[in-house]
Amino acid sequence: MLALNVSTDILNGFTLVDNSLHSSIAASDKRNAKLYQDFKAANDDNPEKTQEWFDKAKEVKLRADSLYNYIQNFKEQIAILADSKKKVEELKAQGIDPTQHIEGNSNLDVTGQYAIVQGHGMELKELVAYYRDYAAGLAENDAELRNSIQQTLATERGYNAHEKDSCDWEVAVFDGMPVGASVTILTKMQNDVRSTESQVVQYLMDRTDAGDLRVNKLNAYVIPNSNSVIRGGKYTAQIILAAVDSTQRPEYYIEGQRINDQGLYEVTASSEGHKKYSGWISYQNPSTGEMENLSFQSEYDVIPPAMTISNTDLNIMYRGYDNNFTISVPGVTDDSKIKVSVSGGSARRQGKAWIIKPSEGAKTVTITVDAEKDGRMQRMGSQDYRVKALPDPQAFFSAREKEYASGNIALSTLTHNSGVVTASYGPDGLLNLPFKVTSFRAIINGMTTNSQGNKFTPDQINQINKLKKGGMVVLQDIRAVGPGGQEKRLAPLVLTLN
Questions:
Q1: If we measure between CA atoms, which residue out of 24, 67, 27, 19 comes closest to residue 180?
Q2: Which of 51, 275, 405, 434 could make an S-S bridge to 47, C-beta 3.0–4.6 Å?
Q3: Backbone angles phi and psi of 110, in degrees to 5
Q4: Single pTM value for the model
Q5: H or E element in which residue 158 lies
Q6: pLDDT in tens, the chain (498 residues)
């Protein structure tokens, strides 16, 4: 029988280790019970400070108990297969752990049957990984503890001595293992669960004091809302005494004058420039009972109203065109708090941009910007722009995704796709507006013909095909319609065959 291959001495050795692990688990249970007791007492005294961490500790206990009990049942099921269900139930009825009194400890088949064949080993791996990841996640601020948890409860692939190859964790742990060894391994897992529980709960207890400020002296601090103030706005600063006893009520003085008991200093910034101020905090020394002063000083800048306006399309503003602007105010990040008004035109928001359109006949446009600062609207400034009519676009011959101005051109290019005449501001133009050519007159071989639309007629194509090198095609009276429906008459286009 295979069972004879496992010596009694080896099995006795596993029993000794298992008993030692049970003693370690008992010590962990005692330690954890004390930790939870202390944690509860601290939470009862100061729930506002510890409740968050105490709740997490209780969740750790629930998860640790659940995994521990699953492993215990895992061992009992192996004991049932190795001995019998009747024996296991009899020992449990007497308050005895049946997994510490298994007669079939040398059986090499039972563990593999339950863990691998029946799939409970994979289930155990998933539960261990779930508990490990949760515990490690709680220790996010302690890399050493997090790594220790991940190593202690590792479920990576292992090595199968029988197959001499890498294998799944459950195969490496349980395949071919005698019952005595498997039960000892499972007891070690229970010990790891309790040990991890203890480490994490202790870490959570320490976190309740992590936010406490420990000081060895008192200091006065000035905390301004901003060191820069727009003229007409208010400078606001909070003056505090660090580590002050909450039962005391310090007195705050600025330039010899006592201010409110909250230490809130507020003054209207009526003039621009660099401002400085100083004062002191008067408090009662807890050791001597005498009043003492801590001095402080601070400074801030009062700046004139400011704005930033940049025309993202043009250097000037064009009539009949949606001029695209970005408008912002330093210190104001909420676009809804910026108001734009236009004299000589209109403004509307389009996404993050502003579309400014001059009125018909306007020669100048003034953009004025207001913004909400300190709870009220303030004028940030204005900017004038000259208004010009849109310039005429240029006529081009388009073929093969390229635009050709007057000059040399190949016959195959000229007749490509029946020829297309377009109008735009060219590849280097600042404007990108849709113009559509509606008609033109072509002079080919001394013959003048008209075309309605933007392409050559079949007769014009026939005439072009009769041209020889050096022959010219002259396009005149080119008409195009742009934004707003205005018709433009464009300069002639002269194309010479090369």
A1: 19
A2: 51
A3: -60, -50
A4: 0.46
A5: strand 158-160
A6: 344 456 676 777 778 888 888 998 999 999 999 999 999 998 998 888 889 999 999 999 999 999 999 999 999 999 999 999 999 999 999 999 999 999 888 899 999 999 999 999 999 999 999 999 999 999 988 899 999 999 999 998 876 655 566 789 999 889 888 999 999 999 999 999 999 999 999 999 888 875 443 444 566 766 766 655 666 667 777 777 666 555 567 889 999 999 887 778 888 888 887 888 999 988 777 556 688 898 988 887 777 776 667 665 656 888 878 888 888 887 676 788 889 999 999 999 998 889 999 998 889 999 999 988 777 888 888 888 998 888 888 899 888 888 888 899 888 888 877 778 888 887 777 677 878 999 999 999 889 999 999 999 999 888 888 888 889 999 999 999 987 677 889 999 999 988
Half-sphere exposure of 192 (CA within 13 A, CB side): 21
Q: What is the DSSP string of 254-318?
A: ETTEE--TT-EEEEE--S-EEEEEEEEEEEE-TTT--EEEEEEEEEEEEE----EEEESS-SSEE
Only one residue has tokens 């209109």, namely 346
Give the total residue count for the chain: 498
